User: Fold Methicillin resistance protein from Brevibacterium linens.
Amino acid sequence: MTPDAFLTSLQRFGDVSYQQTPFWAEARRVDWPDYVPVGWYADGADPISVAIIRYRRIPGTKKRFAFIPYGPLIDWDNADISEQLSTLRSFLEANDVIGVRMLPYLSLRRWDNATVRAGLREPIARHFRDLAPDYTNPTALQLRAIMRDSGWIEKSAPQETHIDYGRFNFLLNLEDRTEDDILAGMHKTWRYNAKKASREGVKIELASIADVDDFQLLYTSTGNRNGFATLSTDFFRTMWTHLTQGLPGRFTTHFARFNGEVLGATTTARVSSTAECIHTATDTTNPRVKPSNALYLALIRQLLSEGAKSYDLGGVKDCLGLDMGGSGLVRFKTEMGADAHEYMGAWELPITPRTYAAFSHAVPAYNAARSRIDPLLASATRLHSRLPALARRDPS
Assistant:
């Protein structure tokens, strides 16, 4: 499919993630250099399903590994899933792919806000599985069974990386609700903190690409504090450029400022009726002014004015115990009134088993080495950029 035809086809689907757009694929070319928009066709001229497939070439070979983030876009309730997965495999085999990772954008279980609130008060509730879900999606259960029967392997990520696998997310329902309705569904502490931020003088502003250095600095500080991988200024600049051009008015970055200092920031994208939080960063040097509450309330107001039906607040770790790292974020999003969802998670299909196995063992080592080398390269680049200025200084 052409990118334009792919974008036109997105209108047929309800929930579409920004990760299933050519703009995001362009932004992630450093990690996945190639990508292709594809469609499944039946009898008509329009595709019945679509996907952005990203590729990473295995060094020294023509073979590739594929990745389908938050896709494919399929009518899961009505499609012949087995046939479509078989068609996908045939397509990948014909394109020198040894294996594929897929993260279907489909909720498996839902815990209503009241259920999570009650669970946070229970000392014995340590993980979401300790709470009875309020809804289990039969379509997702069927998809899991079909994928297992078709040779797909469910990937169990280490606990500290679950947030990267899109397993547990919080969604805030906006459909047919007013701001007063949403405020009424929040915990009184959350509402109080939002009002406190306003009284303290926290200001919310729309940032531009000129502010990318400030965003990256705050994001790096947040990552170092919370133990997740940080991203370079070049990454954020590339992301900003492609999503701003591709989703005009539907990709935004907001700053929370207090006395001129940036204390909070968040990026948001909306392709369909669901808006998604992409990155969030906070400064903890002045927590009393509650910048995060101010940020999210401003986003809620914006999304209500745009007619969005839901707000995906992003991933959390599977932790409910107060002594568990990451539980503070779970509590914050729960007190905002959002429901918790367990998604399908990451699945992989070995197409060429031996090559896939070797590649799978090599990738963790590569990623570990890269996580050590990239910061050094970034520091070297910054130093190199300063050398002309240093050379021009008067030695006296």
